[in-house]
Specification:
Largest sheet: 6 strands, antiparallel
Strand order of the largest sheet: 1-7-8-4-3-5
Structural class: alpha+beta
Order of helices and strands: EEHEEHHEEHEEH
Shape: globular
Helix content: 25-40%
CATH class: Alpha Beta
Radius of gyration: 16 Å
């Protein structure tokens, strides 16, 4: 499984197209759908993005919630109801939907931020992410957070 790390800023052209970083595209290649799924993050003012396999996993995981419960309905509404499948063009670009660009306050530039071992990433307004990142660092410092490392990592 690919390790999605780092940050990449790409310009959004006049037609609304943006190039998805190659390492992020590579993480979702060889799936039946040649593209990504995007939906609004319900935790941050950003866009969540993933490949078809992860989107299927998210959808299937909703079955673990009681049917018709508020949590099930809220998650299905926010994630599945607002998801957009975006096909890659020959240059590896997608057109980000206007409603999601507005939600994430993204203008002329999009910041792609890796999600680690989960084959997901977020798309941010670079300035909004800078403030979010600074706040996260502050919280970690204030709580003196630690990260116990696992003995082995499976690749």
């Amino acid at each position: 499984m690919a390790l999605l790390i780092g940050r990449f800023v790409n310009r959004i052209d006049k037609k609304g197209r943006v190039s998805v970083p190659k390492s992020f595209r590579d993480a979702v290649e060889n799936q039946e759908f040649s593209g990504i799924y995007v939906f609004p993050s319900y935790k941050n003012p950003s866009i969540e993005a993933c490949g078809e396999v992860e989107m299927t996993r998210i959808s299937s995981s909703l079955s673990d919630k009681p049917l018709y419960s508020d949590e099930h309905d809220d998650l299905a509404t926010v994630i599945l109801g607002n998801a957009h499948p975006l096909s890659f063009d020959p240059e590896g670009r997608v057109v980000l939907p206007k409603d999601l660009l507005t939600y994430a306050e993204i203008g002329e530039q999009a910041l792609f931020v890796g999600g680690g071992h989960r084959p997901t990433f977020r798309i941010w307004n670079p300035d909004v992410f800078a403030a979010h990142s600074a706040a996260a660092l502050g919280r970690l410092r204030n709580t003196k957070a630690t990260l116990p490392l696992r003995q082995e990592v499976s690749a």
